[in-house]
Amino acid sequence: MEYNTVLNHENVDKASYLREQNIFNRQDFDMGKIRLSVIWDNKFPVNIINNNTYLALWVSGEGAYNLIKNSNSLIFLGLLKGLFYFSINIDAVPKNKDYYYDLRMLNPLINNFDLTLLSTAQGINYWHRKTMYCGICGSLTKSDDYGNSRVCKNHDCMNKVFPRLDPAVMMLVTYKNT
């Protein structure tokens, strides 16, 4: 069995320069360019093509825009070919909950592009759930920079935190017999 192991799709622009401005007011933005993945119970909605092929379901257009407007968990994932990719987390049980699957199960079944974006969304969403309180003063924090940072709500503190970047290296030590 072959697994999708590429977790950094080379064509996705993380577009960090967009995180500190209003993406929705950009001249090149319109609702038709939104692609939104919805996370529910740490699972993602997919379309099952066959036993070995699943495609991530991306909500687009006005429906995606309305979900984004009513969400407090928006995460901007990046740009690809002029499309703006986002994710949100929902608490309410969706009507089509049978189409939601965990990434561990989806890993060998979805394409590298979807895996890249969904893995990013899952990681940042997890970080948000674990960083609800300020590490300095203990006050609640709120999402900022389209989900890519959190800011303390205490006006005397205003500590800003970012997801950790923990680089990892795997090595195999070998010895050449002479």
What would you say this structure looks like, in words?
With 178 residues, the chain is of the alpha+beta class. It has three helices and ten strands; from the N terminus they run ββββαβββααβββ. The protein has helices at residues 61-69, 103-106, 112-130, and strands at 34-40, 43-50, 53-56, 59-60, 75-80, 83-90, 100-102, 141-144, 149-152, 160-161. The longest helix has 19 residues, at 112-130. It is globular and about 60 Å long. It starts with 33 loop residues before the first strand and ends in a 17-residue tail after the last strand. The model is unreliable at 1-7 (pLDDT under 50).
Features:
3 helices; disordered N terminus; 4-stranded mixed beta sheet; 3-stranded antiparallel beta sheet; 27% strand; 178 residues; alpha+beta
Task: Describe the protein's topology.
Elements: E1 34-40, E2 43-50, E3 53-56, E4 59-60, H1 61-69, E5 75-80, E6 83-90, E7 100-102, H2 103-106, H3 112-130, E8 141-144, E9 149-152, E10 160-161
Parallel strand pairs: 1-6
Antiparallel strand pairs: 1-4, 2-3, 2-7, 5-6, 8-9, 9-10
